[in-house]
Amino acid sequence: MIELERRLRDSLEPILAMSDPRERISAYHDMPYAIFRYDPEFEFELRGAVARLRTRLENGGKRVTSISLAQCLHTAMAAARPLEDWFAVEREAGVDETVQTITNLLEDYQPLVNIVAERMPENADPTKDVVFIVRTGALFPAYRTFSLLEQLKGRVAAPTVLFYPGDLDGAAGLRFMGVLDAEHNYRPKIF
Q: Which top-level group of life is the source organism from (predicted)?
């Protein structure tokens, strides 16, 4: 069993399988979520491991909702203009300006937090529902997940795990995709 699969099975799964995992997944009652950090080069292995984890949890009676940040990004970009037009924007404005435009879009015009919150299960039962936020790397380099997690505070009822591609820097610092400067203000528990 690869290290990533072992960490999921031994650290995260026993908590998510509990009758009420909220107290063990987070120290904050209004932030019932955690981060599962993995090396970005293991993205495809992670997807398979998360699919197997989902199956085990569902076989144990949990309802698992997966929210793809890649799909959320697609939704935001398509709402602003046809997707093929984004290629013209990049050709005309350049990569840096296009990345900044997408950042502005996700922060102000099509807030990513609202798109994610809309995909949370309605009337979630924290003893039955579990949410996985996956495909986080799709946001790189336009949007850092720190702000998403802070903005979700109070809007999440079910135990939720953000699968985070990056490096651990100290006890609570994370470097998105192992590239960006570490953000040390993450309050959710990091697995």
A: Bacteria
